[in-house]
Amino acid sequence: MNALAPTVILRDATEADMAQVQRIYAHHVLHGLASFEEEPPALDEMLSRRAKVLEHGLPYIVAADETGRVLGYAYATPYRPRRAYRFTVEDSVYVADGEAGRGIGRRLLSVVIERCTLAGFRQMVAIIGDGEHNAGSIGVHRACGFHLVGTLGDVGFKHDGWRDTVLMQRSLGDGAETKPAA
Asked: With a threshold of 0.70, does the pTM exceed it?
């Protein structure tokens, strides 16, 4: 793995970043298997999604170079809406085309993990589309302390083929060792 250039800055995403975030995600939707969306969402939808993340008090982070070009982004969302899941979050990490292998995804995910831990969450889940073609994402999650929970076979149909979903998980803070604060 190449060393991450010192000019890469990790920071909270702003509304002004979202056009670049939308382009990164659109590339993954159209050409990759990390997301099972088949049509890239418009900028307005991406702005709405970011707003929902922030409403939950969860992190939405970008990695940018010294010119402000967004190289990747990551965020956390509630895992499920039911109250019993309130201490569990799901992460998402996307790196711009051509920027993989520089440690950007790992650094982004590390910040999301840290912020969610500080916020009192106890578990983080990763739902990775098509494990066969997303070894990089699996590796990033392993490097950040996730373990394989299982694979749901052939649950998505995209790019003219059946795709699986890899489930990974890691504890945050005390995990399940103690009860959460009331």
From this structure: yes
